[in-house]
Design goal:
The chain is 31% helix and 23% strand. With 166 residues, it is of the alpha+beta class.
Length: 166
């Protein structure tokens, strides 16, 4: 009788040990999955075959739009230029995304709408801006707290101040 109980206890312990091992392996697998990097494509997805199909002097704005789709943005001043922008970013767990690759395809048109040239540039042309803390520097003088609080006293409704006429 006693040996039968001991066998049952031993079997239960073995089942618990196996369940613990399986749970530990599953937990480790989930933790490792969280450490993989996340890759995202942003903007225009470049297809080299379509880009190479654009021929200066032959294609026009309509044929480029039919081939490539609408541009990411177009120039507002100067020669009409369409820009197709593509970025691939990578991010590890608990970190900011970092640019892995970046490309800009600029297609320039003449006044008649024909393609004049295509130009490709990469991450070497990107300007990285670093913010200056929590404040944006501005031109002018610095105002203190009391000037901000009481600065408009007497100016509201004064002639020439944009207030209600008296």
């Amino acid at each position: 009788m006693r040996s039968k109980r001991m066998q049952i206890r031993f079997a239960v312990r073995m089942i618990h040990a196996k369940a613990f091992k399986i749970g530990l392996i599953a937990t480790l697998a989930l933790a490792m999955a969280g450490c993989t990097s996340i890759r995202q494509s942003r903007g225009y997805v470049v297809d080299a075959l379509l880009v190479d199909a654009i021929q200066p002097g032959i294609d026009n704005q309509r044929s480029v739009e039919m081939t490539m789709g609408r541009p990411s943005f177009s120039s507002q001043y100067g020669a009409p230029t369409w820009y197709y922008i593509s970025s691939v970013t990578g991010q590890r767990a608990m970190s900011s995304p970092k640019i892995r690759s970046h490309s800009v395809l600029a297609i320039q048109f003449d006044d008649a709408g024909k393609v004049v040239s295509t130009d490709r540039s990469g991450i070497d042309s990107v300007a990285f801006l670093l913010p200056d803390g929590d404040e944006t520097p501005t031109l002018g003088r610095e105002r203190g707290f009391l000037e901000d609080l009481f600065g408009n006293i007497g100016t509201v409704g004064a002639p020439g101040a944009g207030g209600a006429p008296q």
